[in-house]
Amino acid sequence: MSSSYDALHRHATLLKAAARAAKAITTIVDPHELLQRTVDIICDEFDFYYAGVFLIDPNGQWAVLSAGRGEAGRAMIAEGHKLVIGGNSMIGTSIQNRQGRIALDVGIEAVFFKNPHLPHTRSEMALPLVIGDEAIGALTVQSEEERAFHDEDISALQTMADQLAIAIHNSQLHREKQELLRQAERRGRLLQAANRVGREVTSILELDKLLPLTVDIICEAYGFYYAGIFLVDDANEWAVLRAGYGEAGKTMIGQGHRLKVGPGSMIGACVAFGEARIALDVGEERVHFKNPHLPHTRSEMALPLKYGKEVLGAVTVQSVEERAFSQDDITTLMTMAEHLAVAINNARNIDALKEAHAEVLRSKVFEALTTATTEAIHWIGNKTLPISLTIARLQEEIAEDTIDIESLREDLDMINESARQIVQVKEQLIGAVREQKPRPVLMADAIRTAAIQRGLSPDMVAVDINPAVAYAVADSTQLVRAIGNLFRNALEADARQLSVTCEPAETRGMLKLTIQDNGTGMTPEVIEKAWSPFFSTKGSEHHGLGLPAALHVVSQLQGHISLVSNPGSGTTVEITLPAARAIGTSLESASSASIFLVDDDDEWARQFCALLEAAGKKITRQTDLSAIPKASLVLVEEYCAFISIDEVLKNLKNAKLLDKTIVLTAAINAERTTEFLRAGVSDVLLKPYTPEEIAEFLK
Amino acid sequence: MTTVFLADDERLVLRSLEKTLLRAGYDVVTAGDCRSGSEVFAQNEGTIDIAILDLNMPGFDGMPKPGAGLDLLAHLKEKKPSLPVVILTAYDEINKAKDAASGGATAFFVKGREQGLVELIQNILASGQK
Question: What is the pTM of this model?
C-alpha cells in the first residue's frame, strides 16, 4: 500500500513538475533562451543531474546538442557534441523510433554512450521531440540515481517533451518571422537608399558632391564597412578613387589611390571586363587587393559603372563579415550603380558643355576686345588728327608770319573741341569704373535726375513705379549715369516719348527697370555691336560709350541689362537690379531748425518733407525764389526741372543764405562740387533716401 | 589750279584737312558721306584732280558703314577711271588696304601722319599716278 501510495505520489509530483516546466517553457519565444532555460527548468523542477536538448541538423543525419545543463552541457556544446540518428545511442534510437527510452541502470544498458562529461549518470531517459509525424530532436534527462525512471514516467515527461517540441517549433517559426521581418526592413532601407541616390543623381550635377554622398549613403544604409567609387582616367589605364567612406577613404584619396585597369584587382578586373565581381571571402579571392587601409574586409563586391557599353568606373563595397552580400544587396546596389553611371555621364557631358561654353566665351571676349580696340583706335585717330594737323599748319603759318586771326580762331576752336571730346571720353571710361557705394536708392529720384541731366522735358517721360520696388540697391551717382546714358541714346535715336516702368522682377529680391522709347531703333547688326566701346552709329561727335558704361554699372551692382530693338519700332532696355527696402523710422525732434528746401514737388521731396513734418520740424519747399523764407538751413536739389542750380545759388547769395546752404544731389561730381563750394555753399552731399539716412543727415 | 575732293564724316578732320590743303595751294571740295560725295563729285567732276576718301563713313544709304569709302572709290573710278584716289583711315588694316588697292586706290593713308599727306598728294599728282 505504502509502495503503491509512494508511486502515485511520485507520479503526481512528476506530473505537476512536468506541467510547471511545460508552462514555463511555452512562455519563452527566443530560440536560444528557450533551449537553455528548458534544461535548467527541467533539472530544477525534477531535481535531475543533467538535461540536454538535441536538434536534428539540416541534413537529418545528426542530432546536435543545442543546450545542456551546467558545465557539462557547455563543454559538450563547445566540442560540437552530436549523435548519429539511429546508431546505438539512446538519443539516436529515440529519434529514429520516435519513442521514449529509459535506461534504468546505465551500467548495463548496451546503447548508453559512456559520456566522460557526465560520469555520475545512473539513469537516463531519452524523449523524442515530435511535431506531427516528424521528429525534430530529442530531450535527454539523466539522474544520479539508479532506476530513477519508471515506464509510466515516460508518458508524464513525454507530455512535457511534446510541449517543448511545440515551443521549439513556435520559436523557430518566430525566428523565421523575425528574419523575414528583418529582411523586409532591410530591403525597405536599401530601396530607400537606392531611391535617395537616384534622387541625388538628378539634383546634384557635381561629381565632387554626388560621389562622396553616395558612398556615405551606401555605408550608412547597408551597414557596410567601406564603400568607394573609382572613375577611369582619360587613358583608360587607371581606375582612380574619387570617393571613399570614412577615414580610410580620405587617406586613400589623399594618397591618390588608383588601381590598374586589368585583372590585378577586383576593381581593375571589374572595369576591364565590365562585369560585377563578388568575393565573399576575400582571403580566397585571387585578385583581391590587399589594402592596408581596410584590414577588416572579409567580403567585397565590385560593381561596374556602365553607361551603354562604356565602363566609366566601378563601385567597391566591403564588409567585415564573410559572405555578407544578400541578393537584395546586390540587386539594389546594381540599380544604384546604374543611376550613378547615368549621373557620371551627365556630369561629364556638362563639363564638356561648360568647356565648350568657356571656349565660346573666350572667343566672344576676344572678338569684343578686338572690336573695341579697333573702334578705339579709329576714334582716337579721328580725334587727334585735327589737333596735330592744325598745330602743324599753325607752326608753318607762324614760321611764315602769315597768321590770319579768323583762321587762327577757327583752328583753336577745332583743337579745343577735339581736346574736349577726348576729355569727355576719359570721364565716360573712368566714371563707370569708379568704386561703387551701393545703398538703397529711390528709383523715382534716380530716373528724374537722369532725365533732367539729359535735358528731357517732364512731358516726354512717363514714369510708373510699383511701390513694392521703390528702392534699388545701387550707387546713386552710377545709377543716374547708367540711366542717363540710356536716355541720351533714346534722344539721339530721335525718340519723342519714353516710358519708364519699375516693377518686381521674376527673380525674387530683384526689380526690373524698363526704358522704352519710340526712336529709330536698331538693326540686329547694330545691336550686336552696341555693347562694344567706341561703336557708334551717330556720327563723329559720339563716343559709343553709353551702353558699355551702363552695362558696366549694372553688372557691378549684380544686375543684368538687355535690349530689344527693331528699326522703326524703337528700343526697349531692361535692367534688373537688387531691390532694397526702406525701413520706416521716426526722426528725433531734437532740433527746432527751420528748413528751406529748394526742390520740385517730386517723390523724394514729398517723402523728405513728410518725414520731417512728422517729427515736428518746420520745412518749406518751393522753387519760386521771388520770396525766400527765413531759414536756419537751406537745402538745394542740384537738378530741378525748371530752375538751374546756378540761378538758385545766385538768389541765395543775394539773400545771404549761401553759408547755410547744402546742395543735395543724386549724382555727385567732383568738378561741380568744387564749383558749388567755391560759390560759397556750406556743403555738397548725396541725397539721403531712407529714413535712417535722413535721420543721420539731420544730425 | 589743282582741285582735291575730300570726303570724311568727321567734321573736324574734314575742316582741318581742308584748311591744310587750301594753305598748300589746292582748291578743295568736300563731302561728309558717300551720298553727298557722289553728288559733289558729279557737280565738280571736270575739275577734280584727286580724291581723298575716308574709309569708314556713312554709305550711300546714309547709314554708317565700315569700308563705305571703298564703295565711293568704286563709284568715282567708274565715273572717272583716271582719277587718283587716296583712301584715308584711322586704322591701318592690311586687308582693307588690299581691298583699296584692288579697287583702284592709288594710296592708303593712315591718319596720324598728316604732315605727309600734302607731300603724298604732290607726289601722286607729279608722277601722274592713277
Answer: 0.49
